[in-house]
Give the backbone structure.
Amino acid sequence: MILNKRQRFWTKIVTYAVLLFFAVYCLFPFIWMTVTALKPIDEIRSSKPSFLIDSPTLENFKNVLFNTGFLTFFKNSLIVSVAATIITLLISIFAGYALSRFMRFKGIKATGGAMSLSQMVPPVLLLIPLYVLMQQYNLLNTHYSLILAYTTFMVPLCTFMLKGFFDSVPYEMEEAAEIDGCSRVRIIFQIVLPISIPSLLATSLFAFVNSWNEYMFGFVFINDEAQRTLTPGITLFKGLYTTDWGSIMSASVLAVIPIAVIFMYLQKYLIEGMAAGSVKG
Amino acid sequence: MKREQKKKLQAYWFVLPALVFFLLLIAYPLVKVLVDSFQYKTLLNPGQSAFAGFANYLNVIKGEYFSTALWNTVIWTFLSVAGEYVLGITSALALNQNVKGRGFFRGVIVIPWVVPIVVAGMTWQWMLAPDYGIINNWLVNIGILDEPYYWLGETDTALLTVTFVNIWRSFPFYTISLLAALQSVPKELIEAAVIDGAGIRTRFFKIILPQLKSVSLVLIFIHIIWTAVNFEFIWIMTEGGPLHASETLPIQIYRLAMKEFNVGAASSLASIMLVMMIIGFGAYFLITTLKRRNIKKRSEMT
Amino acid sequence: MKKKYLFTLFICAISFFVLIGCSSKSKSASSGGEGDGKEQVTLDYWASWNPGSVEEEKTLAKIKKFEEEHPNIKINVELLTFDMMHDKLIASISAGNPPDISWGLSEWFGELNRMGALLDLTPYYNEWSDKGKLNQNVMDSLTVDGKVKALPQYLGIRALLYHEDMLKEAGYDAPPETWDELLEMGPKIKEATGKEAFGITGTTVRSSQELLMYLAQSDVSIAQKMDDGNFKNTWADNPEEMKRATETFQFYKDLLNEGAIPEDSKTWGWQELDTNFAIGKYAMNVDGSWMKDREAENPDEMADVKIAPPPYNTKPATFLEVSPLYVYGATEHPKEAWEFASYILSEEWQSDIRPTNSPRTDVVSDSQWGEGFTSLTDTGVVFPEVPLGGITQAMQDSIARLLLKGEDPQDVAEWLSKAINEDLKKNGILSE
């Protein structure tokens, strides 16, 4: 439309070249993981590393799925991440809305400032205080401890993301409803949220991935095998003296694939959702 | 006026849950950190602590590797964010083109971001190993290197290598955000520019980039914070070594707290870092608001 | 329309997960049981075997047997890697709820002891019928001021591992016995096989363990217990000791300068050291009996591996890694904890699960992976019982100063001596 034929041809070539580069760059370690997961033990740590497998095997996957707590860890991660995502979202919707509409109040502005401050605190530092806190409230070894910790660290960013999206929702629509006597909560749920679905989806995917991948709180707060989440579970295969690479890699592949599939499936909404907020940022 | 009061109350109710989380799980521990930073406190003599004044601060700053860690934090943060942004915008521009297999490529680009840091760190560490790592093996076979190079084991390259891996993992978030922003750039704007005879470069720098400005600022702002406080990546790949060559402030905080059990020193180092970041961002916001006000004033005057 | 559908879905998901999402339960530590009239006790046991390994299978079977024999005790196992375990222990000890029993590194002994976290096992130990069966050298390393503060559950003694074929190729029938022999073999092995003779580590926990051993082979230690009960690095007070410490650093330097080790060995961690040896990238190193497990991964390359005492300078010595079983003072059930801990040290358990590396003198295996290591116990050295976090870091740094920055061996020895004393001072245990 805006390019002539020759220009269009070259743009296409360059685009494909760039995309190909990125595909290789992004997939390279992932392919290495997959290949390793499919290798028998005597091929894994060879002095001649290679992407080729002499005798591929599903032994590692079988081992991980049936002889370890992988499925329990997976379920736990799912419960924790989904719960943290939902609570984060509920809190952030209201906070984000308030930040978007009522910035003129000093207290709200201060809250916004406090939230950006909280992002600057290295989580490492809060490890022991939070542990003590969780213990005082008898939350150690429960999913609650992780859900609370993840929610805490996720709320500020999700609030800011949602604030951005709500900024782009015209206020006039709400005013009309307000005059009709609708309550504010109803306005949010009936007017603002339905047109922000893609944004909500984008924000929740973001929160979900972060909880899914979190590691430190996961291993410090949970002592009970039955409650353990995925990332600490995977690192267990790294022993002190020898590392079971086959199991680590197959467990990682199994952990990454579902999320990757969700992303591929939802990426349209994801981008649409991010776009809604990005006009104003 | 009464309606405004009601709104205010409502607004406070809305932020209350977020505020409770903040106060309970961040502010309260944070206050403890600040208090501890003025105490002689170590886990080795539990229960004993004494007021230290600024002694912890002085000791930390005088520490042999404080300036190295500070400098490393700056390099690590700057290079990471810069690299991520460049890759992010390049990939976003490419993905914004109308080409076949766009969905596939979009899906693929997200993969690094969904690989847990622990796993990514260990995998890269292995791939980069000198003798049994695939990357060195290839580089030698192709002839780029004469002999395998220990990327994570040399003081010159350790930090850069971890930075490279960090860029690999973090840039997809930029891609998604920037791609989203690109799609909301009005087509008419670009078409108008083409009619005016603007080349590809002009179009990019004069029209597209300004449209991405606000998203970019938010992205960069968030990632500067996240990268600066990030601890896992470096710890997993190098533990800050060799000879502190890849040690950043969070690594030093971790070492002080969890290896040497010096809670007082760890807390004061953390407070220093926090204050530096607040000052940095505070200054930035002050300057931008002043600028904006000046522009406003000037436009009002004319 | 589609959006409305998504929205409903979204709301449903919220309510669904709010209801079921948090249905996790907290464990009950102990509950009043009937049984044989005794109180029901649950012991938290943090361990670190590889999941899915033979060791795990055997251990779980033994634990089951223990529970059957002690119906009032339940063992609650948690598997952790040592890195994870350290951070968790620190967090849980500061919160006052450590596990009852755990594995751990011997390097943590000093810190855990200083934190007051360990149970005094002396009364139980003195009553124990198998008391004399443990290696004295090993028990000494876990005893402070006459009090037994931990038990040894296995030994990680280090020995010289060598690829026999590579040595033969260079015309050597026997491995080196001294540093000088080792240095001399360096260029010959390189010439004959194209591979370096030796490997060392410069990073990770292993490097400070190695340095401790090489220092002991020159007959110096990093810190000594003085008459006042505190500790001190005495090199600076004693020119003779400083000289011997310097020799050790000179040895490191010679290894690198004369090409006896690969160039990048100076910053290897334990993974690089072990893996490169397993894939036959160099001929010899000082390593532990866990290298036997590498036979599965690299059967061909590991086929010619033989074991010998480590080469030394003036005094035969090796690093004696005592893997402790820590019992924590905060436990509510010290008697039951001891019951279980002593079962782990029993001949029955040890001969089944630790046939090659048991701290018991009556469990010895004839294989080279057993005897080859345990026969070196008497020459074993251990870390002093001080908090080691800062000291092991300084030891790593000293190797880096020497090999990366190219500092003079004497300067490095002086620096390390000072750094160790400064760290002791920080922890309030420097002997003045």
